[in-house]
Amino acid sequence: MTVYGMTEKGPVRDMNEDSFAFEKVGNCLCMAVADGVGGEACGEIASRIAVDSVMETFKDSLPFVKDRESLPSYLRTVFNKANIKILHNCLEHRERMGMCTTLTVAILKGTELTIAHIGDSRGYMLHGSELIKLTEDHNEAGNLIKQGLLTESDAKRHPGRNQLLKVLGENQYLNPDIYSYNISYGDLVFLCTDGLYSFMTNEQFKVCAAERNNLEGICGKLIKQALEGKSSDNITVTVGRAERAAEL
């Protein structure tokens, strides 16, 4: 198996507001992770709508995207379609007004990786022994990191990490960050929520991912590590492995 995912409510939250999905669409591995925001305002519904919308759109139209250069425009459309579905759901169910979610999506085709991203769920890549963060957090702590005023380690405890600047559920056109990478066969690509990455070190992350052919085991070890690190949030991770197209 070349893609897997897992989620855990964790010991503190009453419900799991994270959602995830993975799908093989043609020669592409598609992954999505969303972290709902809003608690009583139904963050778990927002995250589920976002992930389901993305995967439905991929199954319907991704095979018709013929070149890599078209993916950024396509992914912006995918994100805005999901956003509109969340807004429409709020109008149909007024008690859900204000629900929103992060969303991080990856399309992996052979060694071509494209990521679209809004919020503070993250993308990572494990290349050899190097764990590389692929996305930037859209929160106050992330802004301080970009300005050189805060370290990654300190950001895990900074109150600004809970102040999101961009989410799905906003009544405006969304312009997600789009990242394009050329990676190597055997590299692992992770999408995860802050309930996972905020409660472990990079070294612990790499130790959990050491057995690269057991993606289910990797997900289980990462969640176990986050729980041992006293995660106070929902915990979600998906992982895909770059393979030759014929092996997908």
Tell me about this structure.
The chain is an alpha+beta fold and 248 residues long. The longest helix has 22 residues, at 71-92. Helix 1 packs across helix 2. The protein has a single domain (3-241), classed as 4-Layer Sandwich (Phosphatase 2c, domain 1), CATH 3.60.40. Helices cover 31% and strands 27% of the residues. The protein is globular and about 50 Å long. It is built from 7 helices and 11 strands. The strands form 2 sheets. Strands 2, 3, 4, 5, 6 and 9 form a 6-stranded antiparallel sheet that branches. A 5-stranded antiparallel sheet has the order 1-11-10-7-8.
Summary tags:
alpha+beta; five-stranded antiparallel sheet; globular; 11 strands; six-stranded antiparallel sheet; Phosphatase 2c, domain 1
Secondary structure tally, helices: 7
Distance between the termini: 9 Å
Give me the CATH architecture, please.
4-Layer Sandwich
CATH class: Alpha Beta
How are the secondary structure elements laid out?
Elements: E1 3-8, E2 18-25, E3 28-37, H1 43-61, H2 71-92, E4 100-101, E5 103-109, E6 112-118, E7 122-127, E8 130-133, H3 140-146, H4 152-155, E9 177-182, E10 188-192, H5 194-197, H6 202-208, H7 215-228, E11 235-241
